[in-house]
Structure formats: structure tokens, C-alpha cells
């Protein structure tokens, strides 16, 4: 049975990703034009609702005009804990956290909001699932710039990040070639190497290092020196921030994701500079791309995907498919249960055709 | 049983598409590094082989260096007929065509070429199939910037074309808004509206017209005037070159593809300018994007796909899967029989999620 | 003596140019932060003031936030006549024009506006001068995307237009080379060839045709065929829309600017296609860049120049230098009398170093 | 009296700058087409000539085709000392330097090279002057991406660097605004703040710190907190790598350029993060742009300037104006004596209109 919806709320959370505003715009357009709903935005994830007075933004057609090409999110995000671990300051001044989820749901209901759309990463979707279990009619929109969610073939923001990284490789390429240098580009990817793999192939890197393949530094060094002996005095290395060597890094620690290690202190890029320079005598430089990968105008495919997600999220609400998340699967937009979506990471599988392609080009993957 | 390959030949044909050179580069790298083959390129499709003396380009690692980011094709293409309709000049000076396919195959064999990779559009793949039937060991790489081949989820060049078209919409947008104009962008798409649909959604167009949906000009005019009455004095129209009105264009002719009509004389964009201006009194302008969509540096996704295709084409040769074409299917690269691949167009289906998304945003599709 | 200013008005007029919004933003910031003034914008040139009720936009810090990178103008422009030739409809329904300048000045004074900043082209600055002579305290900001004003070394928008045109040449280059074509790009420039000359040099064109040098079509044809004989089977031609042949175009008419001719019917680009194709048998194509050159995000140098102009315009008002226009002269921003600035076109001088550079590269300039 | 030239040599040296290849291309075209000379390139500055056998590249029309849009330099550069401080290894294995300038000149003469064009920075031009004094007919082309040479209004590469930096500011802007952060971008500029000033204005930075204005960290902190109190919870800081605080950095050392200090250990950007975060409690992040500013395709103005320089350098040779360097002065290309050109830095003058513009916008310059 279709739910009776008159008003929905939307919020964004977690790190920046190009396309967040495009999702909001599409959702609002679909909600108003297609369903005649009212839309309100909560600022800084759910903090807008938790504030006194509440900090809410009415979202009408005029407010979302122009958002398609605008990076960031007009709703903002937060680093504070979610409603289940809400930070509170005791009378002694100390900060602790408490479960304020009931209060959140109560406040949302007091707004006569009939459904919530939560745009956010894996952590946010886990919170969404728990709120859903407590009775909040909620629909999720996945957001991970690393494209590391198995439930969806692609997430928005990823392709813009790959474009930014590829443009950086292009820029480093000419300098490396002219100046006989090893140029290292450190890109995002704590756990999954998709950005490194895609931008490395797109930029024609000689070495690509990803978290899924602990690298043998000797292999990397060998590649650089082999090229040099062949008369090519430069090399381009693209490394995911979460890549780590097979051995010899005592300070790497297990992460809370099973099998994940903390990035190397000071960054894997800097560590590689030292290793390669010492082993080869070759002038080696690193560029850490960092936040540049999360910002700016979304590229066309990200605008399209984000728009599809926004429209589909409104559709899920209209269909009463709460506790579901929109996803791209085999070129179609579908709804998947949040329970399936969360904690199902999509790592680079060594059988993946991109890995095969990289090897086919003679790219060193560190193994 | 794996064939015994020592030397392969590659050629490109048909209209330009960003990524052609990237295919060549990946093919050559895979052939040399992975299989130890020699590679030679025939210029201007098979014309290089048909010339006396033959016009062939040896393709080694150095020759393909830098091709990844270079538009066009170093092998060139031709507008002349293929080997089955080879143009010959009679003693009376008149041009006729004759079947020179046997001669072509003989010449290729005389080069001790063990397999041929043909990168080209639907017409070229049909020729490849016929040459394969005559005994030539041949592998195809699909090339259609319109992305209108059902055998593959995506073709290289398409995303660069969409990017170019989207950037054009972005540029027109600010002028349209400032100057209260209807701005029309005519993009490629004789039979399929993928570029118009994708760039229209990515650019936030108000009207998108595609060949698959014959448009009612009254609906287009209504959209423009409705916006105007709502205080928004500009509109953006993206139209595929092959779009045509439901009625009232006497000079439209059936094309050789069943159901296809010839584009409107002078271009559909110009025709729309006249129609909209007359009906609304609104200042209306058209920009015909044309060749700009086929040129330039391939965008990262096109570089990646072209590279995957190049590597996979070499793999098909190595596996002896002749008479097959590489294709992207559900995120994987596969080989499909040429017989299945040719003449299976992929039109915009009205059930496609992109159509749904456009409607969900309130975009007028002319129906 | 410094004038006592409390409130200023700003308006934009004429064709679009990237940087208009950046001027408005800088002007408002300087006016508010530096001088404590109130700023109001008149929409559609002076039409906002002439409307009943007046259509004015209060411009504060929040309103101009984000304008730096936004193409177009939030104040809009108009094609209607200025206050001296204001269109009025008689009781018989016929449109005539009358001088409404006194009314305009009266209305502006009724707003307690102490000074006006008019951002516009040569025509607008001529109106500004006449209004100034009638007592309106007015300061001008030059706007011509063609960079054809002698009073200033550079105008904003020009460099973005050159960038757009150069990117187009880059895209055409690879297709031309791969497909053995003559590719023609028609760019803006009715009277002055700066855009064609700059983008032609920046894009590596083989032929550049500008209005200042009536071309000999035989010379153009010769260049194409010479290249072909030398084994280079493609050529790139960049032509300003106002370029015309030395002889043989009967329908060219004298323009209202002395010595200027109307562009060739159907466009000079199309005319060249026919001429070159007939004379050489070479496949020749034209792309008309049109409105794409006026839109989009201003490039960094245009953002900087527009910002300098906006700040300087406020400074001129503060200094009471009315009847002056801001200008870039020898890397400094100065104020020049409007009387000097108007009707002093800056054509491409044949002694200019850019002309020398083009010839030095072997570019055919049609003479 | 015009010299009798038949053959010239060209070399590039120092750090990368977009446009180096464009200079080489224009020089070669002008030399061959305009003067009928032969051109040879020495690799890695003069190292190509000093090698046994000499490592020289013949430069003809085909070799320079396509170089206009290619970053880097096909001639390469070196970090080794010039001919006056040539590194030599003694019999004891120790490296020392000796004056090999006579040997260099002898070797160049043995090639029947009639003139040398040296493209390089201030250090290279000083070497050129000394070689000129020793009788080598030499012409210089200035190269400094920092645009800090007083003899020329502009150097190629600078505008591309500004574009890259501005695009980075644009990307950081949306993330900063969405996520309430202070975002710092560290750009090039050891001694001169032109890149920071230009990209800061073009990107709409709130704080711009340059070496010419030692900053008061309290002023920077005040700007961030003032914005925050006004409800704007983010700030953008662009800082030149050579900027330093007025006081409190004990490890800053005097540089060999009088008045210059060494950059702060670990980089000024990181230092600022710590200072701002501690003082404001605001989440603060730094991005170090580094090598990305030196690479990639030159933007149109840099292509044009580099091309003008290349043509003009050949002209200086033809005119026998040895010991001179090409320069842009007041929109014209001229030759200036090397003696005037070297060691005349162009710092940001506090009276410069860009400084005035920044202040006019309310930008904090740290003072």
C-alpha cells in the first residue's frame, strides 16, 4: 500500500562528494513536481533537528535551482556523533555520549515529516537502519567517493575524483618525462584502490599500488630501474593512501575493518619517496592530492548518477519502500534493503578486468 | 587450441571518436609485452594494404607512447568503400566498385599477418564478419560515439562527447538566464538520443528531444511559455540531430534504417528556432556542436574503456576467438560473435531509467 | 573634492561576457566594505528604473556571494533601446521611440542614488556620456568580449572567449589530422580579429582570417594544397565572423561603422567550405562556435580583471571622477574620460607583434 | 650588420614550466621557414654538448609538430651545475667542480653552430651572459613560472600555474563551505607572491599570504573568527610557500637572496594549520599543490606568449642582437640586454593594483 506522504525531510552526512547537491535538487524536484510534497532539509546531518530551535531549511524549486553543478552540500555535514552516540556535556564539563535516537524521532514526528531521506556513507546508512528499526520511515542514498560499496555498481563523486586524479597524473607526466624524475601521486582510498586503479590506468601510470595488494618495494624499485636501463628515465607511480608494503612497516596497525591497516605514518607517498630514492638514486617527488578529490563541480556522469539517485529516492518514499537504499545495478536504478547494503565493502578483486588490464599494459602492481 | 600468432595487423575506420589511439596503444602493449607479437598498422582502414606499395606503419612500444591522451587515430580512416565495394576507375574514366576482398586477404597473408584487429563502427564490423567468413582471422573492436550498439553496455568516445555537450549546455545556461533567451543546443544522434539525453540531464535542460520520441512542437512551446509565465524567462533545449516532429515536415524521408528519417533540411535546431520564435515571440538561438563532439583528449572513463578494449582484443586473438568483438557487459569485458553484434542497434527505450529521470525532473521530452 | 555618497546604482547591458557578475561582486564588496555605501541594481540595463513599479535588486554581501565564478549577469540586459531612444507604443499600436533620458534621471534621483555605475559596451558608454552631460554622476566599466576598445589594454571576457575558441581548435585538430580534412572554425569578431588571431596562434592554426585583412581565397587554397603536396593532408582554418574576401562577394554591404562590411550571408565559414572544397576537392567542414564564446565560468585572468574593474569603479565614484571609465593601461588600472573611450576601436594593426608571430610561424593570413 | 647564420642550437634548463616546448616549436618554425637555418637541440641544458659523443637532437618541422600543446620540454633539463661549475670526479672518486666553459664553447664551435638560444631561468641567463662575454653568440629566453623577473611583464608558464591554483581553490571552496572548514592552499612562490596573489583573487580567497608581507598570525586568526561570528563558518587561505610570519619562527634563515628567508620547516601550510587550529578550534586542512603547478598543457595565453618568445628569439639571432633576451614590455616583444635582465627580481609591490584590489575586497593579507 502506498503511504500517504505530505512532507519529507532530507539530510546529508559524512565527507564531501561531488554530486551531493545534485541529489538534493533531483529529490526536491521529483518530490514537488511528481508528488506534490513539501520538502525540508535538516542541517549538518540530523543536528538541524536536534538544535533548539531546530535549524531547518525549506527546500522549494527556487532554493535548488543551480545546485546541479555546485559541489558540496547546502545542508552541510558534521563530524559529531549520530543520534545513537550524541555528544552531551555533563555538569562537570566532561563530554560523554548518549542515545538520543528516541528524541530525534520524536522531534521529526513533531514536524509532521512523513519520511526521511538520508544521503550518507556506510556509517550513516547503519544509523538509518537502526532508526528504521525504531519505526522511522527512512530511505537511504549511498555516498562514498571511494566507490567501495558492493550494493551499488557506482557511487556519485567517484568519477569526479578519478577525473581530478587523472588530470594530476597528466600534469605530472610531462614534468617527469622532461626532468627524469620518479613522480608519485598519492590519491584517496583507505581500504579500496578503485580511485588509484582507475586514475592510474587513465593516466598511464607505470606503477599502481592499492590496499588490496600489499606491495613488495623491491618490485617497485625493479620497475623504475628496468625502465631506466631501457632509456626511459622517468616513472609515474599512483598510490592509494591505504596501500602498504608486504613487510617492514612496524607501525602499521590493524584497523577496525578486519584486515585493514592504518595508513603509514606521514603518508605512504612520502615513505615511497624515501624508499625509491635510496634504492635507485633517482630524484623522486610525491604529490598528495587530498581534498582536491572531493571538491568542485561534479563531472557529467556524476551529475547524472546523483540525479538518478535523487529521483529514485523520492520514488522509494512514494512506494513506501522504507529501510531501502537506492543503488545502480547493471545499468538500472533499484532499491536494496539497508541491511544488505551496509558493511558490504567492494574491494578490488584480483580477477577484476581492470586489474587484468593494468597487468596487460605492463603496469607494476607491486606484486 | 590456441593459434600460433607472430604478427598482427590493426586498422581503424569510420568517424572519429576519442579513444581510438588509446585502443591502438593498449593493443600494441598487450601484444608485445604479453604475447611477444609484432604489430603493424594499416592506414586508412584497409587502404594501406590495398595501396601499391602497401602503406603500413610498424607499431612498437615507442610509436604508441603518449597515444593514451591523444584524440584521433594515428592510422587514419577513409570515406572510400571497403574491400567488398572497392572504388575502381574504368578505362573510360568512370568510377565503379568491385569486390576486392580476395585480393585484400591475399595481400594480408603475404605480410605473414596471423590475425587482424579491426576497430570500427557497425559497417566495419559487418565487413569484418564477411572477411571472417572468407577465412580471415579477425577480431573486432566496436566504435560508435553514439553508444547505440546493443552488444556492449558502453562504447568509448561517448562519454567524452557527453562531456563536451554538457560543457556547452553549461556555457549556454548562464547566457540564457542573463539574457532571457531560449537556447537550443543541437548534438549528435542520427538514430539514437543517448548523447542528447545524457547531456540534457547532466546540463539541466528544460527540453530534451530525441529521435526515439517524435516531438509535438506544441508541447515544446508550452513548456517555454509555462516557464515564462512562472517568471523564468529562459529555457534550454537539447536536441539530437535526428529528432523530428510528429507531423508537419514534408521533406523528411525514410532512411535506410527502418523507421529512420533523414534529418530536417538545414538542421532540426534551426527549424526549432523558427518554430519557437514564431510561437512565443521569445528570442531563440541555436548552437550546432558538430565535430567538437568527436575530437579532443578522451575523458578518463573513455581512456579506461578504450584501454580495456585494446587489451581484450589482443586476448581474443591469443585465444583464437576470431569472428568475435570485444564488448562491455555488466562491468566485465567479454567477446561476442560479430554476427550478434552487427545491426543490433540500442535505441533509447522509453522504459529506461534515464527517461524516467528526465520526466521526474519535469523535463519536457516533446511528448 | 570628494563627493558625499551614500547609495549607488549599478546596471549591465549588451551581449553576455564572462566576468559581468565578477564586476558586480567586486563593486559591491568595495562599496560596502570600503566606503559603507548602499548598492542597488537596476535590471535589464535601465529598464528596472523605467518600470512601474521600479524593478530594482538590493545588492548586499550575501547577494553577491559566489558571483565570482558565475557566468552571465544577475542584473540581466536588454535589447531594447536606451533612454534616449526609448520604445513607446502609440495609441494606434505603432511603436516609436522617444527621448526619456530626463525621466530616467529624475527616477534615479528619486531613489536617492548618488552615483551610477554602468557596465556595458561602446553603445552603453556613449549613452553614459550623454547622461553624464545631462548631470547624472556616472562611471563606466567597459565590456566588449572582442577586446576592441583602444582605451583599455584588455577587457574582461575576451580571454575566456579565446580559451573556448582554442579548446575548440584543439578538438578539431585531432579529427582533422586523422581524417584528412580541412576544418574551419568560425569565431566571434565582426570588426576586430583579436579572438581569431589569439585562438588561431594558441591552437596552431594553418590559416587565420580576420576582418582587418581582406583575404585572397587563392592564397588560402594555395596553403591547403601546398600542405597536401608536402604530405600533410589536413589544415585548420580559424576565421573571424567579420572576415571577408578581397573581391567577389556582391552582397557584402557597408556597415554603420565606416569601412565595415556586413558579414557574408549564411556566414563566412560556410562560404569558405564551398570555396575550398570546390578548389581543392578536399573534404572541408565548418564549426560555428557562436554563443559558446560568451558563456560559462570566467577564466582566472578574466576573473581578476573584472574584479579589478569592479573595485576601481567604486574608487572612481569615491573620488568623484564621474564621466570616466575604468581601464587597464600598461598593467595598471586607471580612469579615462568617457569621451576618449567611446568610438575608439582597437583593430588588429598589421604591425602588431601577434601578426608578426603568426607570419613567423608560417600561418597564412589570407594576404 | 646582420650576422651570417646557417645553424643554431637551442637548450632548456631549470624547473619545468608549461610552454617550454611551445618556445622550441616557434623558434624552429621561424628559423626554418623564415631564415632557412638548421636547428639542433642540446639535451639537458648544455650536457648534450658536453657528453662524449655529443647528445644532440636535430630539430626539423616534423620533430616540433604537436609541441604547442605539450607540457615539459623535449630537450630535458638538468640539476647538474652549468659549464662554469661543471661537476668532475677526481681520481680519488671525489666530486669537485671546474670551469669547463672554454671546452663548451669549443665544442659548440666544432658543430658549426653560429648562435645559441638558451631558454632558462635567472641562473641560466647569468651563465648565458658569461658565455656571451667569452664570445659565444647567445640569445636568452626567460623562464620563471613565478613571473618574478622585472625585465619582462610576463613569463610563460605563470598563467597556467595560476589557472591550476585557481581551480584548486575552486575545488576547496565548496568543501570548505559545506563542511565548515578552514582550507589552506599552499602554492609556489619562494620569493615572490604573484601566483598566490593572482590565484587568491581569482579564487575568492579570504586570506592571501605572500613573502613580501610577513604576516601577523593574529590577523589571520582574527579574520577566521570574525567570519565565524558573522555566520560564515569557513575560510579559504592561499599561502605562497615562501610566506613567513613577522615573528616567532626561530628556524627561518636568511637566503642567498638578500632579505629572503628559507621556507618554514615542513612547509608554511602545515605550520598555519597548527596555528589556526590551536587559536580558533576550527577544523583546518592544508593542500600543498607542488608540482601540479609546473605541469600539463599550457593555457592559451601561455601558448601565445611562449610562441611570441620563440619567434622573437630567432629574430634577435637574425638581427645579431646577441647578449640579449626576449621580453614582453607593454604588450610588445622586445630584446633587452642580459645584463639588465639578470638579478632584477620583480616582487609584489605594496602599491600594485592587485594588492589594492585584494584589500578592496576585504581580503586579509596578514598585515
Summarize the entry for a quick read.
The structure is a homotetramer. Chain A has about 375 residues and is of the alpha/beta class.
3D architecture notes:
Four copies of one chain form a homotetramer. By secondary structure, chain A is an alpha/beta fold. The first copy, chain A, folds into two domains: about 5-155 and about 300-330, Rossmann fold (3-Layer(aba) Sandwich); about 160-295 and about 350-360, Phosphofructokinase domain (Rossmann fold). Helices cover about 35% and strands about 20% of the residues of chain A. Chain A has helices at about 20-35, 45-50, 60-65, 100-110, 120-135, 160-180, 195-205, 215-230, 270-280, 300-320, 340, 355-360, and strands at about 5-10, 40, 55-60, 85-90, 95-100, 115-120, 140, 180-185, 205-210, 235-240, 285-290, 325-330, 330-335. In chain A, strands 3-2-1-6-7-12-13 form a seven-stranded mixed β-sheet, with helices on both faces. A four-stranded parallel β-sheet of chain A has the order 9-10-8-11, sandwiched between helices. A two-stranded antiparallel ribbon of chain A has the order 4-5. In chain A, a hairpin with a 5-residue loop joins strand 4 and strand 5. In chain A, helix 8 packs across helix 9. Chain A starts with 6 loop residues before the first strand and ends in a 7-residue tail after the last helix.
Amino acid at each position: 500500500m502506498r503511504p500517504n506522504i505530505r512532507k519529507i525531510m532530507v539530510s546529508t552526512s559524512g565527507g564531501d562528494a561531488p554530486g551531493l547537491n545534485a541529489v538534493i535538487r533531483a529529490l526536491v524536484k521529483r518530490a514537488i513536481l511528481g508528488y506534490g510534497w513539501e520538502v525540508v532539509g535538516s542541517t549538518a546531518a540530523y543536528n538541524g533537528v536536534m538544535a533548539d530551535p531546530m535549524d531547518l531549511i525549506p527546500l522549494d524549486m527556487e532554493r535548488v535551482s543551480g545546485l546541479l553543478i555546485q559541489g558540496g552540500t547546502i545542508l552541510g555535514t558534521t563530524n559529531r556523533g549520530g543520534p545513537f552516540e550524541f555528544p552531551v556535556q555533563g555538569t562537570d564539563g566532561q563530554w560523554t555520549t548518549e542515545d538520543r535516537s528516541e528524541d530525534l524521532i520524536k522531534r521529526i514526528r513533531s514536524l509532521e515529516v512523513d519520511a526521511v531521506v538520508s544521503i550518507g556513507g556506510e556509517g550513516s546508512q547503519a544509523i538509518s537502519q537502526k532508526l528504521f528499526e525504531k519505526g522511522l520511515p527512512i530511505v537511504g542514498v549511498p555516498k562514498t567517493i571511494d566507490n567501495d560499496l558492493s550494493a551499488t555498481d557506482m557511487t556519485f563523486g567517484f568519477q569526479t575524483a578519478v577525473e581530478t586524479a587523472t588530470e594530476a597524473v597528466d600534469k605530472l607526466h610531462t614534468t617527469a618525462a622532461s626532468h627524469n624524475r620518479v613522480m608519485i601521486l598519492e590519491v584517496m582510498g583507505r581500504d579500496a584502490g578503485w580511485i588509484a586503479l582507475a586514475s592510474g590506468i587513465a593516466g598511464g601510470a607505470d606503477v599502481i599500488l592499492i590496499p588490496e595488494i600489499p606491495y613488495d618495494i623491491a618490485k617497485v624499485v625493479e620497475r623504475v630501474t628496468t625502465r631506466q636501463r631501457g632509456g626511459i628515465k622517468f616513472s609515474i607511480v599512483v598510490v592509494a593512501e591505504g596501500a602498504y608494503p608486504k613487510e617492514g612497516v612496524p607501525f602499521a596497525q590493524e584497523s577496525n575493518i578486519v584486515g585493514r591497516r592504518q595508513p603509514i605514518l606521514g603518508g605512504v607517498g612520502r615513505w615511497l619517496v624515501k624508499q625509491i630514492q635510496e634504492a635507485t638514486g633517482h630524484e623522486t617527488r610525491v604529490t598528495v592530492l587530498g581534498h582536491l578529490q572531493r571538491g568542485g563541480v561534479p563531472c557529467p556522469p556524476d551529475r547524472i548518477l546523483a540525479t538518478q539517485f535523487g529521483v529514485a529516492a523520492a520514488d522509494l518514499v512514494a512506494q513506501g519502500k522504507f529501510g531501502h537504499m537506492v543503488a545502480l545495478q547493471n545499468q538500472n536504478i533499484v532499491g536494496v534493503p539497508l541491511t544488505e547494503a551496509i558493511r558490504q565493502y567492494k574491494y578490488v578483486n584480483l580477477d577484476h578486468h581492470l586489474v587484468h588490464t593494468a597487468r596487460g599494459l605492463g603496469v607494476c602492481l607491486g606484486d
